[in-house]
Specification:
GO biological process, one term: lipoprotein localization to outer membrane
Domain ABC3 transporter permease C-terminal: 288-421
Oligomer: single chain
Radius of gyration: 33 Å
Strand content: 15-25%
Helix content: 40-55%
Membrane topology: Multi-pass membrane protein
Keywords: Cell membrane, Lipoprotein, Membrane, Transmembrane, Transmembrane helix
Distance between the termini: 28 Å
Organism: Hyphomonas adhaerens MHS-3
Order of helices and strands: HHEHEEHEHEEHEHEHEHHHHHHHH
């Protein structure tokens, strides 16, 4: 008998389970309890799906941005090629630095097929193509197509996918000709004219970021030095790190190794507003959905209160045969907590399954879109809807729903435990 009456023992669990299973006409869980269960389910699933998609956005955007731009920028335009390469050699020896590649970057006007658009030319050496993580073959396909091959590096260039063939691009494919017009000028009998030259598209690349793929053209270094009149000079060093988050430590080490020979800045300073916006947005969305979840769990109070009112006679009888106030409190606490727990578990399951199959779900939704996509790549800046399942977010969401359910259930459970059995039986 003492085992059955133990806190959260068999007797209390049996009573709680019996009240949950009882039909409404027998004084069981009301429609409001079912509504609270459904509300918690939707809130938990929504929070998991939302946070996973936002994590996917952040990771995918940062991967794309960091794949197409340096982790640390070092200005070397005041040095000769030999001096800049000597500095780069010192930087490569620093622990945590994976590469230090010279480059030149200039804004240009590009024309092809009667279309014109602005672009950014980045000049690189063939041996440095392997430092670009989005080139799966380390740039071998571009080299095979003629990139950096021939006199003065040849006339073959690489273009971003959306600049080449996007909705607002030039409509070119590998083998087509484009004309690049620079901000520099050539003197002639007709006066100063913009410097320009025709190039052949050898390879089209994709970084995963539409912002970069709409802007960048890669050109052999020797050819760019002639086009931009930067012979025997580089402009910058593209420094890549094992951990892109440790840029401050890396810049301090570079300054010590080079004797403060170069001016530096990192990708975070370039994207500070962008990163802050992602952080604020993630925090606000989490708070909003947690408030919605809190509202959903409040319905448990109403459901358990109605259950207590329906079970007043049962409570009085249980009290007279020896069940204490603590036992009554635990019975109805379990009722509310189980409602919330079941909703949370179902929401977690649905949320996880949604994220694991998000590609198929996106494709299915696209079938019902009239002439478009639910997630247009050129509009949103990414090639697909990204999502990363963070199990920490999944379990923390479930625990939050469980804690909220137990917290709100405590109020009606305490009220049930304060019922006077004598008064209850007299009025019954």
């Amino acid at each position: 008998m003492s085992q059955a009456a133990a806190p959260f023992g068999r007797l209390e669990r049996t009573l709680a389970w019996r009240y949950l299973r009882a039909k409404r006409e027998h004084g069981g869980a009301s429609l409001i309890s079912i509504i609270s269960f459904v509300g918690i389910f939707f809130a938990v699933a929504a929070l998991i799906i939302t946070m996973s998609i936002m994590s996917g956005f952040r990771a995918t955007l940062l991967d794309a941005l960091l794949g197409g731009q340096p982790h640390v920028y070092a200005v070397v335009n005041q040095y000769t090629e030999a001096e800049a390469e000597s500095i780069a050699d010192k930087i490569r020896e620093i622990p945590g630095v994976t590469s230090a590649s010279p480059y030149i970057e200039e804004y240009v006007l590009v024309t092809a097929n009667g279309r014109k658009t602005g672009a950014v030319v980045r000049a690189m050496r063939n041996e440095d193509l392997s430092t670009l993580p989005f080139l799966q073959d380390h740039g071998q396909a571009a080299i095979d197509a003629g990139f950096g091959v021939g006199r003065n590096g040849g006339n073959t260039i690489m273009m971003g996918a959306f600049l080449a063939a996007g909705r607002e691009g030039l409509g070119v494919i590998p083998g087509d000709k484009i004309e690049i017009i620079t901000t520099g000028t050539n003197a002639s009998v007709m006066g100063a004219t913009p410097r320009s030259k025709a190039y052949t598209v050898g390879e089209i690349f994709s970084t995963g970021s539409v912002e970069l793929d709409m802007a960048y053209i890669f050109m052999p270094m020797d050819q760019a030095q002639i086009l931009f009149q930067s012979k025997d000079h580089y402009q910058m060093l593209d420094i890549r790190l094992k951990d892109p988050d440790k840029t401050q430590e890396a810049m301090q080490a570079i300054a010590q190794a080079t004797g403060n020979a170069v001016r530096m800045y990192d990708w975070k300073s370039q994207r500070a507003a962008y990163l802050n916006a992602l952080k604020v947005e993630r925090t606000m969305v989490r708070l909003l959905v947690m408030v919605i979840m809190g509202i959903a769990t409040l319905n448990i109070i109403v459901g358990v209160v109605m259950l207590v009112k329906n079970k007043t006679r049962d409570i009085a009888i249980l009290r007279t045969i020896g069940l204490g106030r603590g036992g009554v409190l635990r019975v109805f606490l379990m009722v509310g907590t189980v409602l919330g727990s079941l909703g949370a578990m179902l929401g977690m399951t649905v949320g996880v399954l949604f994220i694991l199959n998000i590609g198929a779900i996106e494709a299915l939704i696209n079938l019902f879109m009239d002439g478009g996509k639910v997630f247009d790549a050129e509009t949103y800046g990414l090639a697909h809807l990204p999502a990363i399942l963070d199990w920490g977010d999944v379990f923390s969401t479930g625990l939050y729903a469980l804690a909220m359910s137990a917290g709100v259930s405590l109020i009606p459970a305490w009220w049930a435990s304060r019922q006077d059995p004598v008064s209850a039986l007299r009025f019954e």
